[in-house]
Design brief:
It is built from 18 helices and three strands. It has helices at 4-7, 12-31, 42-58, 63-76, 85-97, 108-122, 124-136, 140-144, 164-167, 172-181, 204-217, 232-245, 255-267, 273-280, 285-301, 306-316, 319-328, 332-336, and strands at 151-154, 183-190, 195-200. Helix 7 crosses helix 13. The longest helix is centred in the first third of the chain and has 20 residues, at 12-31.
C-alpha cells in the first residue's frame, strides 16, 4: 500500500479517485471470490484485472474505468509495476475497440445561453460559474474551490494586488471603473498540474459580474469559505438539466467549458498556442494539440437548433444587463444562502431585446 511519502506523490483528489476505483475493483473481486490480500501475487492481480476489464467492457462502461483502476493498482501496489501484462493488453484492446469519448467544446452563443438560463433558474452564482470557467479555462472542481480570498485586483501600474472590498466601494460605477483601469484575477490554490496560479479575467462583463457577486458575498461569508457556495453534484445536475432542455448530447459536460474557452481564444486568434497552453496550465504540448486538433470538428458536428444559437447571440450583447436584472430581483439574503439546494431565482426577468 502507499506510504505516507508515497501519498504525497499525487494530488489529494487523485488519491481519492484511486481509492474509489480500488473499492469498486475489490467489490467485484469479492463477488468473484478472488482474494486480494497484501500477499496477493502478481499473477492473481493480473488475471483479476483482466477479468474485471472484460466484465466492465461487456456492461458498456467507459475505458476511463480501466485506466483509473490500472493506475490505482500500480499506485497502491507499486511492486506490480511491469508485471501486469495481461491487464495492460486488455486495457489497450479496450481503447482500440471503444475509443475515448471527447467532450466537444460549445460556441460562445451556447455558453451565454446556458449561463443565462442557469442564472435565471438556479441562481446568479451558478450562471457566473459557467462564464468564469470558460473565460479562465477552469476545471469544474477548480472553479468550485475558489474562496473570497482568491478574488483580487491586479493594478495596471504593477502595484500590489488588493482585495476588491479594500479598494473600491460597492457602487456600480466603481465596479465598472475597476474593470477598465485594473485587472480582476482569480487564484487557483491547488490545481491538477500546479499550485497558486494567477489568472486574469479577460472578458470585461465577466470581471464586472465577479466583482458584483464578490461584494454581495463579502461580509456575509468568511473570506476563506467557498466563493460560489455550491456543491459539485448540484452544479453538474443544474448544468445537465439546462443542456437536456436544449437537446445537447450527453458528451457536453462541465469539462466542455474549459475546452470551449481554449478553443474560442485560439481559433479567434486572441491567444497563440503557447499562451493557450500557459493559461490552461497544461504540462504537455501534445495534450493541447489533441484538444485543439479535434475541437473545431467536434464543434461543427454538434447539432444545435438555430433558435438556441440566435437566442444566445442576442443575449451575448447584454450579458451584464441580464445578470444585473436577475441580481436586482433577488434579495441579498437569498444570495448569501446560495448553498441551499432548494433556493431558486425568480423567473420574472425577460430576455433583453
Amino acid at each position: 500500500m502507499a506510504t505516507r511519502l508515497g501519498r504525497s506523490s499525487v494530488q489529494g483528489a487523485t488519491h481519492s479517485g484511486y481509492a474509489r476505483s480500488m473499492e469498486k475493483f475489490r467489490k467485484y473481486c469479492s463477488k468473484q471470490q478472488i482474494n486480494l490480500g497484501d500477499d496477493c501475487s502478481a499473477s492473481v492481480m493480473d488475471h483479476a484485472l483482466a477479468a474485471y476489464f472484460e466484465d466492465s467492457f461487456d456492461r458498456g462502461k467507459g475505458v476511463s474505468l480501466a485506466t483509473s483502476t490500472l493506475c490505482a493498482v500500480l499506485y497502491f501496489y507499486p511492486r506490480f509495476h511491469n508485471r501486469l501484462g495481461i491487464a495492460h493488453q486488455a486495457w489497450r484492446g479496450w481503447k482500440k475497440r471503444r475509443p475515448t469519448t471527447h467532450h466537444p467544446p460549445i460556441s460562445w452563443e451556447l455558453v451565454v445561453l446556458i449561463a443565462c438560463t442557469m442564472c435565471r433558474d438556479y441562481g446568479f452564482h451558478v450562471g457566473l460559474l459557467v462564464l468564469l470557467s470558460v473565460d479562465c479555462y477552469l476545471r469544474p472542481r477548480e472553479a468550485l474551490a475558489l474562496s473570497c480570498d482568491d478574488i483580487f485586483i491586479l493594478r495596471r501600474d504593477g502595484g500590489t494586488a488588493v482585495s476588491p472590498s479594500s479598494s473600491h466601494s460597492a457602487a456600480h460605477a466603481a465596479t465598472a471603473a475597476v474593470v477598465h483601469e485594473d485587472r480582476v484575477a482569480v487564484r487557483i490554490r491547488k490545481g491538477k498540474t500546479d499550485e497558486n496560479a494567477t489568472l486574469c479575467i479577460n472578458n470585461a462583463d465577466v470581471a464586472r459580474l465577479v466583482l458584483m457577486y464578490y461584494r454581495v458575498q463579502h461580509g456575509s461569508r468568511r473570506s476563506s469559505t467557498s466563493f460560489f457556495g455550491v456543491s459539485y453534484y448540484r452544479y453538474r445536475k443544474c448544468f445537465r438539466a439546462v443542456c437536456d432542455s436544449m437537446q445537447l448530447p450527453a458528451s457536453v459536460v462541465l469539462h466542455s467549458l474549459r475546452h470551449s474557452g481554449a478553443t474560442m481564444d485560439y481559433f479567434r486568434h486572441q491567444f497563440d498556442f503557447a499562451r493557450v497552453k500557459e493559461r490552461g496550465r497544461w504540462r504537455k504540448d501534445k495534450t493541447v494539440r489533441i484538444y485543439l486538433g479535434v475541437a473545431e470538428s467536434l464543434m461543427n458536428d454538434l447539432r444545435v437548433q438555430q433558435q438556441f444559437v440566435h437566442s444566445g447571440a442576442k443575449l451575448a450583447q447584454h450579458i451584464a444587463f441580464f445578470f444585473e436584472q436577475v441580481l436586482s430581483s433577488t434579495s441579498s439574503s437569498l444570495l448569501s444562502s446560495s448553498q441551499s439546494s432548494s433556493s431558486t431565482l425568480s423567473q420574472s426577468s425577460s430576455y433583453p431585446s
